[in-house]
Batch of 4 targets.
Target 1
Amino acid sequence: MRVLLYAPVDLNLIDGSAIWCASVAQMLVHDAEISVDILLHTPLTRAVSHLALNHEPRIRLLDPWQSGEASMRRILRGKRGTRLTPEQAFERIERLHAKDPYDLLVLRGGPICQRVAASPQLGARSWFYLTQHGADFDTVQALARSNGRIACQTPLLQEFLEGMLGTAPERYVPLPPMVPQRLCDEPRTVRRGRQLCYIGKFDPHYMVEEMIDAFGLLRERFSDAAFVVAGDKFHDPECTGEFRMRLTGVLEGTPGVVWRGGLPRDEIADLLSACDIGSCWRSGQYDQSLEMSTKVLEYAAAGLPFLLNPSRINRLVFGDDYPLFVDTPESFVDRTQAAFEDDGVYARAAAVAHETCERFTFAKVNEQLQPYLAAYRTATSVGGNGDRPRRLLFVGHDLKFCRAIIEHFQNRPDCIVRLDTWQNHTRHDERRSEELLRWADTVWCEWCLGNAVWYSARVRPTQHLIVRLHRQEVTTPFPEAVTWSSVNKVVFIAPHVQATMLKRLGPAVAAKARLIHNTIDCERFEREKTPGFEFRLGLLGYCPKLKNPRLAIEILRRLIRRDERWKLVLTGRPPQSYAWLWARKEERSYYEKLEKHIASRGLEQHLIRQDWTSDPPAWYADIGFILSTSDLEGSHQAVAEAMAAGCVPVVRRWEGAAEVYPQAQLFDSAEEAAGLIQRVSANGLRAELGAQGQREAQERFDTRVILPQLEPLLLAKAPAPNAEATLPSQQD
């Protein structure tokens, strides 16, 4: 397996970014089947961070400035620059991959990640390493559109990035900080002397000056104490040079302080082994960090206990009771003194450090990554005959209903998935769509709107085109504009929608039709119900007015005549938040009258209003009865999800409802719906009907039922187009 690693870091320096780059390469080659090429960002001038890499036969350092290729001279414009620009790095990566394709690219840095993410050829086989402070808007937007994976340090950071990118957990790869190995088999039980150490860069927020001042106080008590410092990278935010000059004077002139300058990693290991306590105290601005410091693990690998901030991430990793947390000069002196004098404190801190470090060694991280690497390892040999992975492209303005389908194929080692997300029914980045179309084997158009029209007019005979048609398209002219002779399959999500559209489109399209319901992961919705759920009705989404929330209010009003405990949970964005809706006179009037009706009937106290939920399973756990009061629906996915969660479905008899939800409690009026709900509650039938709905959801909508029906469509080779399958005239 061949891996290309690139990050805009300088391997001539000793800092966290350079150590990260070298560590990732060394960790990957712990797998004997992996080789790593590191594309250098800067020319090599001295051996510091990269020294250990020279001893790894399966790690190559690719120095563009030493390349004899004419193409590289052109990229660099004939100059020995100090660093690659993002444009130069991207061009070099493209050329390297074209010459000898890589199985996996590991990339760090917003500008290069943005460029690679936009390339269908490269983005699909990439891991984009993203940090908390590297998640700028442009990078986030680019990675959200890509189907490459996002690598990040910690679960806290992943949670933060999921919120920013709106991406599923399956898109992420855990890539924690790491160290070569533990340098001692057992934790230290006693200190050897009183040597404190700091290793890393010099930054005002890294508290080196404050440490040295505090060390002076310790030295007054412990005359044999020493403070060993290694590092030579200065970061001066003011760019005046004053910080560097001041700190250099302190490092060179303070009694007991030994400044070793920049050292290779193996010499750092020797230095740490000779010391007793490491320091990673930083200013309070790092207390909200979602990432760990690699320096802490380097101390731990050498068996050293360490001083560090009691931040959330540090408490999560090392425990709330770790004995050497510091956040002030006074606590720094106090905790260091305790470690110098109290063998129990020292031994406890060392034991925590030793045990924690084991989870972050190269070998352990490599082992944890094996399930993620498997897809790339097999990508060049799917089917055993050298076939490349199937290239699947999903297209649409709203992909929420096919999210589970996308994630399923993303997780298959024999597939590469890309997304073409349109701005609305017709607007899109045409240049990007053309590039994606050239790349794809199979195109899935989610919704039969402008996307289906555009792709069906351009798809090649050797490609496979699938269009999935919902109810929304029934009232638009787009289906007639599709070049149906280029479409291999059209998927309908509900029988009544299929019947209506095939009358319009004719027998040629009917021959391509498949009825496959929307899919849900039923297991995800199996949550324990919350207290009081038995008396809560749920309406998830109540805009536009065809959702008919007035009918839900009327059902509630009839129920509370008999029992004041009933509540209606009205969840979704309010109508005022939809500019297009609020601009329509009839829509606005409907909701204004609805609010007056609620107020005049004194119903507000029985309403629980919520904005759109980011955790639907938790929402359904609060609900006993799910309402579907719409005038029209395709399938009303909320009902299927609620059934999977054990809610009793109470569904208006909109066209096709009985075919989509045959076991639901169907009604024609508010009085009938209220009577159904009242009888279910009074006769103790809620649990029985809830379980019945769960079984129906599992049998009809579960991913384990639906995905096997979709796989043959998406993975099929495209047959020769049917010349006779043309769109019939209106007379037909």
Note: Residues 362-377 form the longest helix (16 residues).
Target 2
Amino acid sequence: MIPDDVVDEVRARADIVDIIGEFVPLKKFGKEYKARCPFHEERTPSFCVVPEKGFYKCFGCGKSGDVFSFVMERLGLDFVEAVKYVAARSGVEVREVSRQKDDEDPHRSLYELNAFARDWFRERLLDPATGAAAQAYLVGRGINASTAERFGLGYAPDEWRALRDAAARHGLDEGLMVEVGLLGRSDRAAEPFDRFRGRIMFPIEGVSGRVVAFGGRVIQGGDRKDAPKYLNSPETPIYHKGNTLYGLSWARHAIRREGSAIVVEGYMDVVSLAAHGFENVVAPLGTAVTTEQAKLLGRYAQRIHLLFDSDTAGLKATFRAGDILLAEGLHPAVVTLPPGEDPDTMVRRQGAAALRAQMDNALDVLDRKLQILEEKDFFSSIERTRKAVDSLLPTLRAAADPTLRDIYVAKVADRTGVRRDTLQGEMTRAAAGAARTPRSDAPASPTAQTPRIPRMGAERTLLLLMTKNQEYVERAGEHLGAEDFVDPAYRAIFQALLTDPELRVPPTAMDPVAAQRFQELLDDPEEIGHASRVFDDAVARVRVETLGRVLRQLDRRIEQAGNDGEKMALMEEKERLSRERRALAPDDWTMTTRRLQGDPNPNL
């Protein structure tokens, strides 16, 4: 037999229009393709292929199915033979394994939970009473009912246990719901609670079409004013965000037909552009574009349009993504939007034609870099030209296509006056240096110690990570509050990020000192190695400092206690918090204890 994951990959990679088109002369009608049915005689075409959904149907004889059932019916093959036939035309290597028990998919229950949640969120959106505000929000964003249905959009009511109770009535496992991120736990709550509340829900599908995770966008009227704008499912056995692109399950056939993909920043951009006729749109999931995502795109097209915001942060993300795509042999082009516009606002205000015009003027990623350097007068002096070359070298090195890399080198040599062999030498030296330096995202040695926080301090380190990755905003909000920050400026920045994790400029109402610090964080180029472990360490240290302050306050209150009962209660609270502090930083606690005991070498 062929494993389910291989069958899913073949189905996902197959272009049903191309394969059925080998047997039937299909003609395009809107989003569908029509022809006279190959299974019965007819004069008027009633055979329809819907590539978006991956199925065909004849409204004359009633035959319908997916790409496998068509091949089975047309060629008389069994299922395994049909999968192999389609795989051979889709570039997928098929392996067969011996048949196993019915429970061979260990993650089936996780997929079933997500499918239940998707349907439940969808029902809440369509409910005239519960979903009224959410429906109004979508209409205000230009999302009609058809587009909402296509993407399976839903609504999570602003209640603490509505989904939990619904799942319990169906006998669904509460622990698994916590594992996939549908329910949350907190030290402040005795029982699990609905993690998504008061949010438009975006189901995230794998390439096979199964729901692997969710993203939730808060709407007005939510129960927490400081709630992050977007809340995403955590990584799970079935969801690895760096390996997934939002919208790819819907867009993959359009990407193949168009010969190009449009990469935008978030869910709403994907849905909004789809509502305005752009079918080949995908988005990374709250992180920078990854190598795995670039490889996914490379299955369907070589030409990639990067359609990010055109502010400073957006340009940085654009060029990081461009280099990743180049390294996988793809050809990225940069679409530049007018100041203050993003893809969603532009199509809503100016229409699809205006955005298409901007895309027609897209520049190769190196050309766009050169254009920006020209605009900033980087070729006016020797020193600035040297800096320009330094900023261009990563893109030269990234280009895996040897012809494209040669074109790049020639263009940079011509514009900067630096000889080609000199540029080649610089590229070689930089590559050798990178080979000697471990990648920041490389897995740590099993015996490696937890990395130390850089000397910038735990509060600043934590905020720096939060500005670079929205996932850390959510995680930090689960463990810390603004009151945990000693520095008033960092406290204000933390609160601002909790309110809007997508902030890329300081809010106008922010204190000038905090605004300056925030801008420094946004502009900081430092890449912190082993970021997840550094984040955990930073959270622990901030929390340890908070507990230290609370313990000192308790000491004063114990001294001032008016009676033995009050004093005993305070001492019990002190012991509880002391245990929590020791658990967070056992090494620091041991060193402090030894110092207090008079140990001359507390660090040994």
Note: The chain has 26 helices and 16 strands.
Target 3
Amino acid sequence: MKRHNFDRQWRFQVSRGSSGGEGRTSGNAIVDLPHDYSITLERDPNSPGGAGNGFFPGGCIEYEKDLFVPGEWKDKEVVLEFEGIYMNATVRFNNQIVARHPYGYTGFHCNLTPYLLFDRENTIRVTVDNTSMPNTRWYSGTGIYRHVWLLTGEKVHISPWGVFAQTPSVSDKASLVGVTTTVENNSSAPERIAVRSLILDENGGKAAETEDDFEIDAEGKADVKQSLEIFHPNLWSVEEPRLYTLNSELRKDGSVIDRTKTRIGIRSISFDPQNGFCLNGKTMKLRGGCVHHDCGILGSAAYDRAEERKIRLLKENGFCAVRCAHNPPSPAFLDACDRLGMLVIDEAFDCWREGKNPYDYNMHFEDWWQRDLSSMILRDRNHPSIILWSTGNEIVERDGRSEGYAYAGRLADFVRSLDDTRAVTNALCGVGPDPAVSGLSIHQTDIPEEYDYWGEITRKFAEPLDVVGYNYQLDRYERDAKKFPDRILCATETFPKEAFDCWEAVERFPYLIGDFVWTALDYIGEAGIGHVWYNGEKGFLGDYPWHTAFCGDIDICGFKRPQSFYRDCVWGISRAPYLAVHKPEHYGKTPDISKWGWPDVVSSWTWPGQEAKPIVVDIYCSDSEVELFLNGRSLGRKPAGKANRYLAEFETAYEPGILEAVGYEDGTPVSRSTLRTAGAPTQLRLTPDRSCLKASFGDLSYITVELLDAEGNLVPNADLLLYFTAYGPGSVLAVGNGNPLSEEKYVGNQRRIYEGRAMAVIRSNGEAGQIVLTVSAEGIRPASTVIRVE
């Protein structure tokens, strides 16, 4: 079916009494998709979503759009595809309910054909209800936050998500591609149809082709299976993500009546305890990170460029795998993984029948799990980047309650019925000694110390899985290999502070396929999970105004955080030492660092008012030794490198000037890094990540704003309010910084600088020309940058 983007110009209104929009019922607002209503609102310390949702309100909102249906569509099929609506969506077409969809993370289709009114405007209305909170454990956003597509085609057509390409035999000499094409006939008569599959290489050259005739019954559906052989294929890999295009066509009487294109990759994957994970026959360890669905300062709005940028940031920082926690991502995210070479664990649910919040997916699981799993797998199964399907995360029923063992098998079997080419996993966290489940008496006092609650209770839950995900179970990797010698493990969540030990285990144990830190990218919600307390604060999450998790290797703007520089050493991808300076005002205090946190350090040597006071400097260094110099004086040389867990600690008295770390191997200096005390701020520097955008709506450029002194040094301690102005065929979509406690909004034209930096996102409006972004601050000369749009 033909796909038409349906994102532009939706009428928008907020229902009366909706949280964040009390008393507003205006239908005059016009919004473009993707759209996140929640990110536009003021955070509220009394929001029912609480810290889990970053103190953002939800709401009940409506979108409306007209569709002119010409008379020549009388013999056509017309379908709407929604990639994602959060949540509890009801879709009406000409006042007819055509779909209800409670889950906020799976796509769905609405057949409009029976209700079409020809030669006139038809009205689509979408109601989104995210008022019952809390319904998730992190920031969800509210609204139609992914793309919408209008699909039109003949009565006989390829079903949406109806093409499935597999690679049952792969080698660099010749590979087989198996293609299953699902065809629908919504007419009242049988039809004789030809299915043609043509595979093109990256340059548009024909790699393989086949065509088959078949007859499809009236009001019927049929799967057409074909096999194509490609000689000397370009295999898809993380290093070289080579893609092919599968053109699928339906022909009737020699004419094409339907066509669709699918990007595919030719690669083989396998899992076993002796070799771990193999890609194209070679063992590969997964340098992984968990990611939530939001796009940082854009909220949940899934712009294609924002999704691609996430993957580029991760690739640049050494990651080769992501785990989509804890729901299916956007198609644009997976497309970027395919193009850029990022392996994926595609995950379905955060809960089953037993909930974790009062209004979460447990309310719908029993009626919807098959439909939502189908949506995820049928939509995503052609992505070569996906290597594992995950049926859930930290499922409460992992100890067997509420038919947990039975459901573990049902979900795994259902996944394999739709796609048996990938492994099935589920992420398990610890279980407590629940006597009712373990079979032990609640009054029993002679429980043997060696009784293994985890092993025995989760044994049946793990049996249907091909790979068992372990969340925060570092101490079990070796012992469980002895208890379950055929078990393949994946560290699906680990603490940032355990990076060294976790990666050492991955390298040592062949059955442990990879390590996925929580998290690779910071995110909104679970506010303060990565906290460092000094003043006796208690609690898992932070109080208002905390709103980001503050646990990511990369912060919400895309800037590297200290743990990312440490991970560079662990993974062996960087040579330069990293100077991590403990804030001198906390010297002598004992920090309470969250399990997901990191020491409270910054890479700065600008501490006015702290002169002559003691200060601690950590150096992350992959070289065997590191020496620290302050204003040319040596403060000593200490062991570093792997033998010392890539960490050396120094203490000195603060004095302004130059702090330099020099790394040594065999007594020879091989690397160095320098920090300089910054002077007064005098200038702004704007650095766009892209200086040229496409002349199509929704392309983005991320502009880093840095505050510098006269010599070009970053000034990390100034507190200035920045003002953003854009002229030309684009606008400021979002502004932000890495401050997890900021009360500022991410929409608008002003934002305070934080640790010397801020971020602006420019969105093109679809016209060619030049966008000029100007940033100003009191007492600082304004700075501008030009973004071409062509």
Note: Residues 365-380 form the longest helix (16 residues).
Target 4
Amino acid sequence: MQNIIQDLRYAIRILLKNPGFTAVAVLTLAIGIGANTAIFSVVHAVLLRPLPIEEPDRVVHVWESWRGEGTAPVAWPKFVAWREQSRSFESIAGCNWGDGFSLTGADKPEIIAGRTISPGFFSVLKIQPITGRTFVPDDAKAGAPPVTIIGHDLWRNRFSSDPNIVGRIIQLSHKTYTVVGVLPAEFRMANKAQVFVPKIEEAELLTEREDHSDQVVARLRPGATLRQAEAELNTIAARLADDHPNTDKNWQVKLVPLREQTAGGLQSTLWTLFGAVAFVLLIACANVANLLLARSAVRRKEIAIRAALGAARWRVIRQLVTESLVLAALGGALAVLLAHGLITVVQITRPDLEAVNAWHVSMLTPLRLDYSVLGFAMLLSLVAGVLFGLAPALAASRISLEETLKESARGTSQGPGHSSFRRFLIVAEVALALMLLTGAGLMLRSFWKLAQVKPGFDAANVLTVPIHPPQAKYSDRNRRIQFFNDLCERLRKLPGVEEVGGNVYLPLAGGNSQLSTKVHGRPPLPEGQNSPNYRVVTPNYFRSMGIPLLQGRDFTERDTTNSTLAVIVNEAFARSVFPNENPLGQRLGIGDGWWRDGDHLPREIVGVVANVRDGSLDNAPAPELFIPHSQSLWDFGLNLVLRTQVKPETLVRPVRETIWAMDKDQAIGDIKTMERVIAESVAPQKFNAGLLSGFAVLALLLAAIGIYGVLAYSVSQRTRELGLRMALGAQRSDILRLVIRQGTALAIIGIAFGLGGAFALTRVMRALLFEVEPGDPLTFVTVSLLLLAAALLACWLPARRAARVHPMAALRYE
């Protein structure tokens, strides 16, 4: 123990005597380990951390799939059939994808995210309320007293953690509900749902087979496999297709494990980032190894003297390894602080993962640096310390005492093989840095191309206002339509407002409906054309959004249920369904609730508008139908769109006051500009590109520091040689070229190896790129030149110092 304490004291004293070396080594280690720890925390939280439910591996999402391709929400009658006929599940439940409930009873009404669920939903997840009960089958029967279960956050923030909340009456969307339970704090739904109400299985719901808008989760029976359950449900689906060929034909079933569904499309992104920081760690390790090798070479005389005085080889190795462990411990401690900071940055800048996964029944957990990751960081730092210190220590302990004690400062102090190994490390650093830079370059190119995509509308000076009039108060559709008409008219009169319109689903904001469609008097449309996107809009919506009207007319106040049913189609629909024809005047049958004699009532095409990107900017424009709000039977809220002549943000307060002047209990959603909607739609790509680019910059700096360190050390060891060259007639330019050529050769070799590695590794990024190929020549050439420029700068600094060496000073150098 005394020897260990003595080694520690000596190690600390030696490191304090060399603050420059110590600072660079500790900071390099901290960057490598801290970045890895932070990203591993994210990977652990999203992909590895156990979900806060019992036996999550037995829970699956059940989706419908058109001809086995992709996944789609479920039609409720099919869920009922699965629930009654399936034997592979212990329990199965359905829910909608998300509702907005207006909670009244305070100073201002508030929209609370919620879900409408079947009674067995929490049984599937095995979630028990912290107080009260879950839903029972009787809660879902028509005429049952309305009840609700609320989330822990709502209970704490809105109801001050009232211990007597169970049995309390609250107003949700102007309807009275009794609170029957409070969910635990660790349960978090992906759409931030805090209100849950039972889904009433009325006759109309059980016969609507074309409305694919629900989600289904199920818990497998003990011993049942996912493949067996999927096969059973597809057998049931085949029987349903025989019974209902018009609606159920070609629909299959696909099961997705809950863990896979929770991560959504984030797996490839997170593993790519984890691979990137692993490269940063490898480069940091190579730098520290280079530093220790250089330091061991400088200390050869010291070690030889200690050996001459009787120090055993093991004693020398133990001392050098102890110094490395002290460095590693300091680097690990600083790495934890850096990891905390990086996780904070990730939490602030990351896209809303809950919004990305809004269609998923997921239990997302907050990002934090937990104890398991902390232990991983400390273990990593200690292992790194042993590895970094052991190789130089073994090499230094094998020195020849006689030769070393006779060496001059210029002699063979680098030791056999040290120079070659250090050059190998530099080549490896450059190769790793180029691979990481190439990945970052591809992501930046992809994001730039995505940002250049024209959305099809003019987002400048547009304010969006979500309004959801409660059905309990506006059950009469005429009253609901009149409310929106009057509200739009009042908002138009606000100073600075140019035009007002509304749409159920804003472009790029998520949400979608597709309805079966046919052309009257023609054969059924082929697959891919018979279910276009369905949009409900008000008059003046297209002008408010800046969407060009290409043919025909816009909707007007005269488009009512007493006039001809109208529809406007987009350019993509017109070209695919009516190629080389004029679509105006054509009649479409749309499954939106208007029927006559068992068939859809015809709607006349009165206009054609330009294509708009929907869902995300990287989605090609899809066929779309636009229906006037006054002719829609669906009970929807609207996203009002205000085109302004002033900064849209200045109108938020007047808009709220105008709405509450009409209805003081009307809850208002998140008011935002259309430019913010676009920014949020590309936030995941921007986040990926930014984070990967940050790690790439770190890799570039570490690689440049490594090249600089090798050349600076080489110049210091070759001072006498360089002085002799200058004394014999060499010019400063000759010395500059000599040193720069040495470093540039290493950089070029590293770039050559890095190009080969990047060409192979970037193939895994294909799914993350938009209109950019993994082997994009421009990116490869650009990052190679960038890395070469950084290497030249790193070479030039020590070369300039070498060129300034005075011959006489060099000849006297010992």
Note: The chain has four domains: 1-55+264-407, 68-249, 433-452+679-814, 474-664.
